[in-house]
């Protein structure tokens, strides 16, 4: 029997909260264990019983999604979080990714994309709204890689390029290690080295650099 994944929701709009809950409950392997109306309520629940995944609205009274995500990830670093929002600003996404969230989805997304995102994150991957990623890709394709970028790429080993590509595809360090048949600590070392060589500081910057310089497969 498949594992039942417990999901906590937080949104101050009751109709949206109920709609997402009904959609999730329609899946045999998913179960909603909390329907909070603000970040404070969600944190109170998680401190009692940590779920497999939290889906959090960005704008809520008392405590918003940004503040709630930051506090939760400080207390529970391995907690998986998907943020729902109407905002598409890449600077906001960058801040959330730096914080450690696993996914970012626009409220205009359809139910199939939401379920896909949930399942990707539960598998240990990351998921960011397709519209947002297309905007990032289009913006980067308009840029011309600088000679300095070529110099940075030339310093990467073939294994570091492999690690970069897999990280950009949403794999976790553990999944990269399994795919390359190496230890997680080896992947950590490659990740640290390649980010230092490319002068990037997080996965969002790594994705931007790889798109700009065609380090993809």
Q: Can you walk me through this structure?
A:
- There is one protein chain.
- The protein has 217 residues and is α/β, with parallel strands linked by helices.
- It has 2 domains: 5-141, 3-Layer(aba) Sandwich (Rossmann fold); 147-213, Winged helix-like DNA-binding domain superfamily/Winged helix DNA-binding domain (Arc Repressor Mutant, subunit A).
- Helices cover 55% and strands 14% of the residues.
- It has a 6-stranded parallel beta sheet with strand order 2-1-3-4-5-6, sandwiched between helices.
- α2 runs parallel beside α3 and α9 crosses α10 (184-198).
- Mean pLDDT is 84; it is low at 136-145.
Architecture blueprint of SSEs:
Layout: E1 5-10, H1 14-25, E2 30-36, H2 39-48, E3 53-57, H3 65-75, E4 80-85, H4 90-99, E5 103-106, H5 111-122, E6 127-128, H6 130-141, H7 147-154, H8 158-168, H9 173-180, H10 184-198, H11 203-212
Helix pairs in contact: 2-3, 6-11, 8-10, 8-11, 9-10
Name the descriptors.
14% strand; Rossmann fold; 2 domains; 6-stranded parallel sheet; 217 residues; alpha/beta
**Which class do the helix and strand fractions yield?**
alpha/beta
* Share of residues in strands: 5-15%
How are strands sequenced across the largest beta sheet?
2-1-3-4-5-6
Order of helices and strands: EHEHEHEHEHEHHHHHH
Summary, kept brief:
This protein is of the alpha/beta class. 55% of the residues lie in helices and 14% in strands.
